[in-house]
Amino acid sequence: MRQIFLGLALATAAVSPALAEGAEKKGLPQLRFEDFPPQIFWLVISFVVLLVLLSTLVLPKLQGTIEGRKAKLEGDLATAVSLKDEAAAAIAAYEKALAAARQRANAIAAEAKAQIEAAAAARKAELEAKLAEEAKAAEVRINATKAAALAEVRSIALEAARAIATKVAGIEVDDASAASAVDAALGRNG
Amino acid sequence: MAAGGEAHSPLEQFEITRLVDLNLGGVDISFTNSALWMVIIVALSTLFFVIATSRAAIVPGRLQSIAELSYEFVAGLLRDNAGKEGMKYFPFVFTIFIFVLMANMLGMVPYSFTVTSHLAVTATMSLIIILGITVLGLVKHGFGFFHVFLPSGVPMWLAPLLIVIEVISYLTRPVSLAVRLFANMMAGHTTLKVFAGFVVALGVAGVVPLLFVVALTALEVLIAFLQAYIFTILTCIYLHDAFHPHH
């Protein structure tokens, strides 16, 4: 409604100067009714021709282009969305694979560590056993040497005692009494 | 618009001259200067759109952009004002817009003739539009179309007054539609011609009206577009009534 009033106001404002001008001569050319029929005839002809030309040659093509572009844009957007989804899926798969690989690597590392530790423990135990055995053997040897040494000390002491007794006292001591005296002395000191 | 050598009346530019005298069953259908410019309008519009849409590229060039812009402009007008049902009449509305726009714009060319500055042309167009819309409304809604004259929910005692007002308003439509376009075109061109006459008459001081004419020409180009737009949008709005007679 507002537009109609505006239009009317515009029209009246526009007409008034024009009417004032047109008062001279033989009136407004626009109001010469004998000129109406040819104008109306050619208006109808040219309008219909333009309508037919535009709606056959131009409008279907324009509509096709615009709708084709719209369809292409929508198709491209859909492709982009699906590509994005694909990329996201690929990333997820990659991360999953990465996590699995990491897990496997950890497992392998743990296994290797366990193996190495077991081997080390075995070797240590073996070594300890060997050392203990050697220590034992050494002890046995030491004890034997000690016993031998002690026996040797006894025989030397016996001989020394017999020699001293012969030299100092000039008496011959038989083996048995010398042995008992040495043993007694060794037992006392030993 | 042309500042001719002789002392022409500013209304001389609106004279209808018969180029070829023709007669069909007693009716004068002579090929006039008006008819010549109508043919030029049809030829130029068709040529422009055929060239502009010849390549139909996905990424449009300049001409194609203009063609698509005008298509979407009119389609938007029609969809917003007349609704989806109105899109069936898109070719008709589009042709109205292009015809009026071309007529107004070609009228800005010096020595040309403005087809739409004649009441015979604008009145014929508006009468065909309003009659067509009325017939369409009656076919679609039958007697229900007369709801246009009586909005629902109006108290009965107001009805006689309101119906009279609405009928007058409805009957004024073709008049306002026709007069608005023709008067705007005529007034603008007359004013231009009057001031252009001053340019010659005032000699050196004619620079002042010359500047005015330049500014006015720019304004007239704007009005040429605006009036084509108004003519089209009113067609769309009236078309809306044919589909939805209930206000």
TrEMBL record, chain A:
Q: Which domain of life is it from?
A: Bacteria
Location (main, coarse): membrane
Per UniProt, the keywords (alphabetical) are: ATP synthesis, Cell membrane, CF(0), Coiled coil, Hydrogen ion transport, Ion transport, Membrane, Signal, Transmembrane, Transmembrane helix, Transport
Its Gene Ontology molecular function terms? Answer: proton-transporting ATP synthase activity, rotational mechanism; proton-transporting ATPase activity, rotational mechanism
Per the UniProt record, which residue ranges are transmembrane? 40-60
* Coiled coil regions in record: 84-122
The residues the entry assigns to the signal sequence are: 1-20
Q: Where does it live in the cell?
A: Cell membrane; Endomembrane system
Pfam families this protein is in?
ATP-synt_B
As for membrane topology, the entry says: Single-pass membrane protein
| Summary of subunit composition and partner proteins | F-type ATPases have 2 components, F(1) - the catalytic core - and F(0) - the membrane proton channel. F(1) has five subunits: alpha(3), beta(3), gamma(1), delta(1), epsilon(1). F(0) has three main subunits: a(1), b(2) and c(10-14). The alpha and beta chains form an alternating ring which encloses part of the gamma chain. F(1) is attached to F(0) by a central stalk formed by the gamma and epsilon chains, while a peripheral stalk is formed by the delta and b chains.
Q: Which family does it belong to?
A: Belongs to the ATPase B chain family.
- Its recorded name reads ATP synthase subunit b
From TrEMBL, chain B:
Where would you find the membrane-spanning parts of this chain?
Answer: 35-58, 89-113, 119-139, 146-172, 192-214, 221-240
**This protein's UniProt keywords:** ATP synthesis, Cell membrane, CF(0), Hydrogen ion transport, Ion transport, Membrane, Transmembrane, Transmembrane helix, Transport
The membrane topology term of the UniProt record is: Multi-pass membrane protein
Which InterPro entries did the record assign?
ATP_synth_F0_asu, ATP_synth_F0_asu_AS, ATP_synth_F0_asu_bact/mt, F0_ATP_A_sf
The residues forming a coiled coil are none
One molecular function GO term is:
proton-transporting ATP synthase activity, rotational mechanism
Q: Which domain of life is it from?
A: Bacteria
Q: Which PROSITE patterns match?
A: ATPASE_A
Q: Where in the cell is it found?
A: Cell membrane; Membrane
Concerning its family, UniProt says: Belongs to the ATPase A chain family.
Protein name from the UniProt record? ATP synthase subunit a
